[in-house]
Amino acid sequence: MIKKSSIAIEAFDVNKNYGATQALKGANFRAESGKVTVLFGENGAGKSTLMKILAGIEQPTSGDIHVFGEKVSINSPADALARGITIIHQELSLCPNLSVRDNIFMGRETLKRGFMNYAHEDEVTRQVLKQLEEVIDPKTKVENLRLGLQQIVEIARALTINSKILIMDEPTSALSSTEVAVLFKVIRELKAKGVAIIYISHHLEEALEISDRAFVLRDGQIVADAVVAEIDMEWVVSNMLGRAFKGQVHKSSGYAKGRNVLEIKNATILERGTATSKLFAVEDFSLTVKASEIVSIYGLMGAGRTELMEALAGRDDFARGELLLEGNDITKLSVQERIKAGMGLVPEDRQRDGLIHQMSVGSNLSLASYMSHIKYGFVNRSTEKVEIEEVIKNVRVKTSGHNMPIESLSGGNQQKVVLGRMLLTNPKILLLDEPTRGIDVGAKGEIFDLLRERAEKGLAILFVTSEISEAMNWSDRIVVMSRGHIIGIYNPNDVTREDIMSAAEGTKEGELV
Amino acid sequence: MKLNALKREESTGAISRFNRGAFLVEIRALIALAIIVIFFSIMSDNFLQYSNLVLMTRHVAMNAILAIGMLLVILNGGIDLSVGSIVGLSGVVAGYLMQGAPIPFTGHVAYLNIWAVLLISLLVGIFFGWLNGLLVAKLNIAPFIATLGMLYVARGFAKLITNGETFTKLDGKPSLGNTGFITTFAAKPFGVPLPIWVMILFAIVFSIILNRTAFGRWLYASGGNQRAAALTGVPVTKVNIGIYVLSGFCAAAVGVLFTADLHAAIPNMGEFSELNAIAAVVIGGTALSGGRGTIRGTLIGAFVIGFLVDGLVLIGVSVFWQETIKGAVIIVAVAVEEIQRILERRQKLKSAS
Predict the structure, then answer these.
(1) Which of A95, A136, A178 minimises the CB distance to B4?
(2) Contact A43, A300 (CB under 8 A)
(3) Which residues are registered as beta bridge partners of A322?
(4) Domain end (from A241, A270, A303)
């Protein structure tokens, strides 16, 4: 039995709806003082939503939050801070143009006779960085630090607040193993001081090492909780994925793979956000994708998959290495030139990078292939319309007409529009970054069916995913990345989810197939 | 452990290299200024004469005061197009009050002491700045649009007050106790015109605000990453309103100085001066995207613009060429920075491979 008084924060039946999507469905969660409580869950399970609610960034649609036994409503980050709740954000919330010291004291400036007390702030900054065993000048601008050190700054800020409840959302994604060890030492010190720590990480073993109690969130609900000493990795994984999990399996149906379409040779990409760092987000990545083949890239946050996709798409340069499309070097080509050469790109964030919100479904579809309908300087509307209606049928966009505004479609149908647009350019290879982010299960299946159909007709497909089930069910080969390197390339018929998951954590070497 | 030591070395290397980069941005504007000074001193014997330098610096000062206010707004990622009109409006308000302001329904006319006139004129600027701030921060209207609207509104009021005329009776009467407007606000303490003193004072005060107060840090923080600033408890809305208030205040100060300088309140005063202020800020190395920029750079920018224009007048270049050259200098100044960035990136990629 847990003593009532030791519970620092507790959530009762918390629901959170974003429009029609239910991110949390009656989640119950609690964290005790002097303990580390870990929250497990797959991407999209609702972990970050729950943490945002506890930190006052989002408000629950319904449900109660109790802090130290008292029912409260946490309306803003400032409100949370006043109640002793601090959050270390998964996405860094730093001002790159400010110094380390200024970021640590942002919003909590210390004053002396009305002016900034820089001497004091420098001193505190130096102390907290010493505690974290890092040597950084407090006056260094954050933009000049590599990602890992930026994360250290974010952690340092939380440590200087002396809060009673500390939420850490993926605090180690960019840290080296030495830095993780130091962080854990600090976490143990905080525990000893009676701080309640809520810890979220995709690195399961790491999380189990540091935590006392574990909760598992799946599809917006807490499905299991236990004392960490009594559980193991298997318990975590099976609860995260759901014991009764049955995925549709659409593995390669045995048709012959063709010639090499895309060859990535020793791709090396600089880490972003650092002005002069020579650290690599991706190092010596080599992969060949053949015609009719679907290859998936799976990795945890910070594995380098986003950076790789950006560079393949031509939005970032290779520091080293080359990229061949059907034997032609396209390393130096721009985004537009790559599309013209036969590379189709479906961006991760379709709202920001994919759709033109003011335009109709049809205009969004013909955006990339538009030029082919121009005759004597004018757009041939009739051939354009024929093509649009054909593709609406082919990619099964559910719309009452091509003149409908794009905003009238659901997320899944919008994604089909982005996909259909690229297919109209007749690509030889299609690159997709998280193709099913934020769309429902049914639409997910339809999109992958569509990809499989195209692959059978010879299209090569390379997609990045953070959901193991997608990689397992829809690809011919799974490339697992960790910390910028390929850990292994697997045949989905021969591996288990657990194998993939531990490979992604960098704990298990995979076999090359 | 070895890896860690390596990383540490790198981060300190980054510091020294960064400082060089920041230095280059400022030195670039200084080089431009040096070229202008050398070129015009060769072309004209009068350019470097004390009296000419004072005259030019007085012109610079008016623009620099506006540019300091503009800098605050741009640091936050905004823009203030209304400052030129606020110059006109507050100048006209000062002129109107000096003429004597009829009090409605009483038949009396109020003659205010010049300090009361100064105060009310400044409050007019502060009020319009506050309106800008509300539109931008509370109603989420794009700064460009909100202040564009205010540009017309304030200018319209200035013309309504004067009915399109010019107020010239600014001397006041000893019997009314309101003399000294021109002698005070166009004074020359120690032989140097007042606007130059005000520029120096504002530069010092605003440097302190930017570098030594919490408000200054909030400003850089919300200009650098507004979302992050808000999440850590920075009062971003208050900051956003505050900068427009300060910008309006700077513009009103220029309005009063300008009116005293001209010995007349003209409703068209300060037209297009917002554009010169923006140019000074940008030449001084401030990014329009916010979060980066200094008072020092802005002052150098104001001197570049002011000395260039006056120098061209001095050597007798036609008005049309003056504008063309001014525009080209603005573009070159900013293009150099971008070219520098491209070169640095290329260097970075080369050193990596």
Answers:
(1) A178
(2) no
(3) A265
(4) A241
Same-domain check for residues A33 and A133: yes
Same domain? For A67 and A96 the reply is yes
**Tokens at residue B289, please?**
């995207």
Strand partners, A324: A263, A329
Q: For residue A250, tell me if it sits in a domain.
A: no
Taking an 8 Å cut-off on Cβ atoms, the answer to whether B12 and A137 are in contact is: yes
**CA separation for the pair A397, B345 (Å, rounded):** 42
Query: What's the pLDDT tens digit per position in B73-90?
Result: 999 999 999 999 999 999
- Residue pLDDT, tens place only, A57-78: 889 999 999 999 889 989 888 8
How many C-beta atoms lie closer than 10 Å to residue A375's C-beta? Answer: 9
Contacts of B351 in chain A (CB under 8 A): 278
Q: What is the pLDDT along chain A (513 residues), one digit of tens a residue?
A: 444 458 899 999 999 887 666 788 889 999 999 999 999 987 667 888 899 999 998 899 999 999 998 899 898 888 898 899 999 987 778 998 899 999 999 888 888 888 889 999 999 999 999 998 888 899 999 888 877 888 899 999 999 988 899 999 888 877 777 888 889 999 999 999 999 999 998 778 888 889 999 999 888 889 889 999 898 878 887 888 775 444 444 455 555 677 899 999 999 988 765 544 557 888 899 999 999 999 999 987 778 888 898 899 888 888 889 999 999 999 988 888 888 888 888 887 777 778 887 888 888 888 877 777 777 777 788 888 888 888 888 888 888 888 888 877 877 888 889 889 888 888 999 999 888 876 766 677 888 888 988 898 899 999 998 888 888 888 999 999 988 889 889 988 888 887 888 788 765 444 443
CA distance A412 to A436: 8
User: How far does the CA of residue B32 sit from the closest CA of chain A (Å)?
Assistant: 26
Q: Are residues A331 and A439 in the same domain?
A: yes
Q: Mark yes or no for CB contact A141/B18 under 8 Å.
A: yes
Q: How many domains does chain A have?
A: 3
Residues in chain A: 513
Whole-angstrom distance, CA of residue A458 vs CA of residue A67: 58
- What is the ipTM, given to two decimal places? 0.75
A439 and A418 share one domain: no
- Tell whether A45 is covered by a domain: yes
Which residues in chain A are closer than 8 Å to B353, comparing Cβ atoms? Answer: 268, 319-320
d(CA A297, CA A475): 9
- Phi-psi bin for A41: left (phi > 0), alpha (psi -120 to 50), beta? left
Beta bridge partners of residue A72, listed in sequence order: A65
Same domain, A96 and A147: yes
Residue A513 belongs to a domain: no
CB contact under 8 A, B220 and A95: yes
Q: What is the pLDDT of residue B14?
A: 40
Element (H, E) at B102: strand B101-102
Interface of A with B in 444-503 (CB under 8 A): none
Q: Where a domain ends, among A422, A441, A466?
A: A422
| CB contact A102 to B (< 8 Å) | yes
Q: Is A157 on the interface with B (CB under 8 A)?
A: yes
In a mutational test of the A interface, the residue from B225, B226, B227 whose CB has the highest number of chain A CBs within 10 Å is B225
Give A97's contacts in chain B (Cβ within 8 Å). Answer: 220, 223-225, 291-292
**B348–A157 CB contact, under 8 Å:** no
Please state at what angle helix A177-192 crosses helix A147-160, rounded to 10 degrees. Answer: 10
**In a shared domain, residues A210 and A270:** no
| Whether the Cβ atoms of residue A346 and residue A464 lie closer than 8 Å to each other | no
Taking an 8 Å cut-off on Cβ atoms, the answer to whether B348 and A178 are in contact is: no
Q: Which domains does chain B show, CATH number per domain?
A: 29-40+47-316 (1.10.3470)
Which domain, by its residues, includes A410? 358-422
Q: CA of B265, closest CA in chain A: separation in Å?
A: 38
Of B3, B13, B229, the CB nearest to A106: B229
A144: which chain B residues are within 8 Å (Cβ-Cβ)?
Answer: 11, 14-15, 18
pTM score of the predicted model: 0.77
Taking contacts as CB-CB distances below 8 angstroms, the residues of chain A near B231 are 57, 77, 89, 93
Both A93 and A224 in a single domain? yes
Cβ contacts (< 8 Å) between A177 and chain B: which residues?
A: none
CATH number (domain holding residue A283): 3.40.50.300
